[in-house]
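Sequence, please.
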């Protein structure tokens, strides 16, 4: 049994203020081509289908087109913490007849979808993102035993009545303790941790929620990661599609197929003159989504707009210089105010704020500006 493991599509997501429509269309089309090349027996999508519970209008037809292109394969799709379980599950009973299996809103009942191969049945259990409150509502007699996310998953799985002598795949969307987070993920301070021990016994656990591809304790418990990089903390991650093969009971193989974004993420650092020197940027990936750190001691006027003439997808601009490295930027009140000239007061303010004195040019400009203001008065 061979299947493709995907998760965290986050269709409709913005990267800072930038819409990622073209980037997401590109990567979803590449995933469709990988599926065609690998010819799997099923496609698994482990939650966070959309980026918002109410997705933007252009996200819905994008998902529709993606699922249509994969229509020849059975698809198992669950909702994640970013999704509205009710909206994702719309028409799921009718779609199931055409091979699109969508997790319903959790009510305590999780029946397996069974596929067959030469070794017999493979049971796919679809457990959407759940909180302890959801499991308490489903099993009120066990409410006192459900105090954490680990308890919630343990109780939910216990009520699935899994036959562990058969081959079983769990598709779920949770944070498993010991996994590595990225900046673009929601974080509730560790309260949502689930101990991996509750997942023991499954032949494969297809996880969603975390954006970096990684195994958790075993290659059989895996986050496949997002298909795109959604924060600069993910800049060194290699995005991929996970392809899982289950042979007879106990036989397992994992392969990854790399993904190639329309635009990658890059960080650059240097002075404004260095970064805008043609010989330094010609032939480099200037169309990538950029985080630029300027090391100039003086702020560059209108730096963002000027840098975007070279790096059109500049998303973040910051400085690393004497001023920004100063531990305290607190500005104290000036002493002996009445005895100091306006220029002296401004020079002291500038020194405290920027960690360095005015240049001669700046001082001359301020002197002439102050004189002109006083003349008008």
């Amino acid at each position: 049994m061979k299947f493709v493991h995907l998760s965290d599509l986050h269709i409709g997501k913005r990267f800072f203020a930038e819409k990622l429509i073209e980037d997401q269309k590109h990567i979803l089309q590449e995933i469709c081509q990988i599926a065609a090349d690998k010819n799997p027996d099923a496609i698994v999508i482990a939650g966070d289908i959309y980026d918002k519970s109410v997705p933007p209008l252009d996200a819905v037809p994008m998902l529709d087109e993606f699922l249509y292109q994969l229509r020849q394969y059975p698809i198992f799709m669950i909702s994640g913490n970013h999704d509205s379980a009710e909206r994702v599950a719309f028409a799921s009973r009718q779609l199931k007849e055409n091979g699109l299996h969508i997790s319903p809103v959790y009510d305590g009942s999780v029946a397996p979808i069974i596929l067959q191969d030469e070794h017999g049945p493979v049971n796919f259990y679809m457990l959407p993102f759940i909180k302890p409150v959801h499991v308490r509502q489903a099993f009120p007699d066990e409410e006192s035993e459900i105090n954490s996310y680990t308890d919630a998953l343990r109780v939910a799985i216990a009520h699935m009545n899994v036959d562990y002598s058969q081959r079983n795949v769990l598709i779920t969307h949770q944070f498993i303790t010991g996994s590595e987070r990225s900046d673009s993920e929601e974080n509730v301070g560790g309260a949502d941790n689930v101990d991996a021990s509750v997942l023991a016994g499954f032949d494969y656990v297809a996880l969603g929620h975390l954006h970096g591809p990684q195994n958790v304790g075993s290659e059989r418990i895996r986050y496949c990661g997002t298909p795109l990089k959604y924060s600069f903390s993910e800049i060194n991650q290699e995005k991929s599609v996970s392809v899982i093969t289950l042979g007879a009971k106990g036989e397992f193989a994992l392969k990854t197929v790399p993904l190639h974004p329309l635009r990658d993420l890059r960080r650059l650092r240097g002075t404004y003159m260095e970064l805008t020197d043609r010989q330094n940027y010609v032939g480099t990936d200037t169309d990538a989504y950029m985080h630029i750190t300027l090391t100039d001691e003086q702020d560059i006027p209108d730096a963002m707009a000027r840098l975007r003439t070279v790096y059109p997808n500049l998303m973040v601009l910051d400085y690393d210089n004497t001023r920004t490295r100063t531990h305290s930027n607190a500005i104290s009140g000036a002493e002996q105010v009445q005895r100091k000239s306006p220029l002296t007061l401004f020079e002291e303010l500038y020194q405290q704020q920027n960690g360095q004195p005015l240049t001669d040019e700046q001082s001359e400009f301020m002197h002439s500006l102050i004189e002109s203001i006083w003349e008008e008065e």
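The CA atoms of residues 113 and 124 lie 5 Å apart.
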